[in-house]
Amino acid sequence: MLIGAVKKELNGKTILIYASAPTYPHGAIDPVADLAKLALANECCLHVDACLGGFFLPFLNKFACDSKHSLFDFQVPGVTSISVDTHKYGFAQKGSSVVLYSSSVLRQFQYTSVSDWSGGLYISPTPAGSRSGGLIAQTWATMLYTGINGYRSAAQSVSEKVMKLRHAIDEIQGLELVGKDVSMIVAWRSSESDVDIYVLNDILSSRGWRLAVLQNPSALHFCVTLANESSIETLISDIKSAVVSSRKLKNVPGGKASVYGLAHGLPDRGVVKELLKDIQDVMLNNA
Question: What is the pTM of this model?
Answer without folding.
Answer: 0.85
